[in-house]
Amino acid sequence: MRKYIAEAIGTFVLVFFGVGSAVLAGGGMGLESPINITGISLAFGISVVAMAYSIGQISGAHLNPAVSMGALVAGRINMADFIGYALFQTLGAIIAAGVIYTLATNSAGGYDVAANGMGQNGWGAGYGGEFFMISAFLFEVIATAVFLVVILGVTSGNGSPMMAGLVIGLTLTMIHLVGITITGTSVNPARSVGPALFVGGTALAQLWVFIVAPLIGGAIGGLLHRARITGSDD
Question: PROSITE patterns in the record, alphabetically (predicted)?
Fold first, then answer.
């Protein structure tokens, strides 16, 4: 149970500071000098670095059901742990989204979730670069697979464990720099579920892509690692 609680806390931190950077400091609150895509990308990446070096020794700091899926396929965890990790990661993300919602709506200027959103993932007309669903799905699969290749490689027996947290965080930053305009960047079903529950509507209708595509990408990354194409645990 200790590792599951660590995953809930770690995912809370990732969503609170990552999504929170977009909602509370990214222009939604009407700030004169909002942070940009680079700032939001760094918030996600730095959050992962912080959690990797603080709870990594307890749970591995997956913070993401897609990462846990990759670990399952690669043979690093069993199905029971995958289910426990995914449930607690999602719980942490939902709590974080709830705190962000509370902070945003308790300000003098108020906050219109319908107009400004909650950092939810999406695609189509009126969202980001208005990419079609196929683009959103492909990006999420490819980006998550690359993310898992990096994670499993750098944490393998032949990897660089001391540098793992930094490398993983920088990789997530890289993914966000490209993906925010396409989908808002998920590569993490838990991160997508939290905000979508508070926004509803289109965010919930499109949520399936941000659950299915990252899990497929995670499984691909796990398969590549298990086949020793991108690394080995030996």
Answer: MIP
Q: What is the CATH number of the domain that holds 190?
A: 1.20.1080.10
| In-domain check, residue 231 | no
Span between the terminal Cα atoms of the chain, in Å: 28
- Listing DSSP states for 162-227 in one string gives GGHHHHHHHHHHHHHHHHTTTTS--S-HHHHHHHHHHH-THHHHTTTHHHHHHHHHHHHHHHHHHT
Picking from 121, 119, 5, 23, the residue whose alpha carbon sits closest to that of residue 63 is 5
Please tell me whether residue 36 adopts helix, strand or coil conformation.
coil
What would you report as the CA-atom Rg of the chain, rounded to the nearest whole angstrom?
17
Residue 234 lies in a domain: no
Distance CA 23, CA 14 (A): 14
Counting the structural domains of the chain, the total is: 1
Domain assignment of residue 233, yes or no: no
Place of tokens 């942490």: 92
Whether the model pTM is above 0.85? yes
Evaluate whether residue 9 is within a structural domain: yes
Band of residue 156 on the pLDDT scale cut at 50, 70, 90: confident
Question: Which range marks the domain in which residue 211 is found?
Answer: 2-226
